[in-house]
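Suppose a colleague, Dr. K., hands you the sequence of a protein chain of 211 amino acids and asks what its three-dimensional shape might be. Before reaching for any lab equipment, you can write down a predicted structure in C-alpha cell form. Begin with the sequence itself:
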Amino acid sequence: MKNLALIAAFLFVTTIGYAQSVNYHEATQKGIGMLDTAKTQSGYLATTSYFENLATTNDKEWLAQYYAAYSNLLQGIRGKADEETKDEIYDNALRYINKADLLNPNNSEIYVVKGYITFMKMAVYPTKRAMNMIPEANRLLEKAIALNAENPRAYLLKGQNTFYTPEMFGGGKEDAKPFLVTARQKFEKFTAKSLEPNWGKTRCEELLKEY
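The predicted structure, expressed as C-alpha cells, is then:
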C-alpha cells in the first residue's frame, strides 16, 4: 500500500507539472498569435496586457519575459502616444528583457530586443540621446551576432538601425544594405524552435524594397 501511495503521489505531481507546461505552452502560443494579428491601438494594448500577466504568473520562464518586453516595444513603436508615454513604455520593455536576460544569460534573441529598445528610446529624444544610445544599441546588436551568427534578427536590426541613423552618426541607407541582405539570407535558412522568436522576415523584405 505504501508503494502504491508513493506511485500515486508521483503520478499526481507529474500530471500537474505536465498540465502546467501544456497550459503555459498554449498560453504563449495564443499570445504570439495576438502579436501577429494586432493592428490597432487597442490590439497592441491587449497583447501587452496579456503577456505582462503571463510574465507575472510564469516568472521563471524567460520567453514569457521576452514576449512581455517585445509586446511593450511594439506598442511603443506602433501605438499612438506622446514622447513621454513612449519613453515609459520602452522603459517597461527594458525591465522585462533584463529579467529575461537574468533567467537566460547570453541569449542572442534577448540582445536583439535590448538593442531594438535602446534604439527606439534614442528615437524619442534623438537630439539628446543619439550620441550615447546609437553606439549602445549597436554594441548590443554586435553582441547578439557574436552570440549567434546565424540569428537573422540580429542582422535585420543592425541594418534597420543603420538605415535610420544619419550619416553623420555612421549610418545611412547604403551602409544598411549589406546587413539587410545578410539578414534575408539568414532568414531563408532559419527555423524557429517551439515558442521561440520567429519575427522579422517581412520587415526585412520591406526595407529591401527601398533599394
